[in-house]
Design goal:
This protein is mainly alpha-helical and 88 residues long. The chain has helices at residues 2-33, 48-57, 71-83. The chain has one domain (14-83): Cytochrome Bc1 Complex, Chain D, domain 2, CATH 1.10.760.10. The radius of gyration is 15 Å and the shape is globular.
């Protein structure tokens, strides 16, 4: 029984991260980057480290979000934003 509960809890973890990334994106990113991350430059070719630095410290008119996002949150947000550009 305990093993089943642990497996269920572990299976739900990515959903929580995805939901948080979606909420962050819709609250702070969508106005400039668009519904599907189609507006303003999003440099898919940049490394995760470069993207992380941009999210943390900002660039140009984009503010930094290091004050509210953890390293894990930033990594999840990058994955979420990259998912818009993945080809099936």
């Amino acid at each position: 029984m305990i093993i089943l509960l642990l497996i269920t809890a572990l299976a739900q973890e990515p959903v929580e991260h995805e939901n948080k990334s979606q909420k962050v994106y819709k609250s702070f990113c969508i106005s400039c980057h668009g519904e599907q991350n189609e507006k303003t430059p999003y440099h898919v070719e940049k490394t995760a480290e470069e993207k992380s630095k941009t999210i943390k410290y900002g660039t140009g008119p984009m503010p930094g979000y290091s004050w509210m996002l953890s390293e894990s949150d930033i990594a999840d947000l990058i994955s979420y934003m990259d998912s818009f550009h993945k080809k099936d």
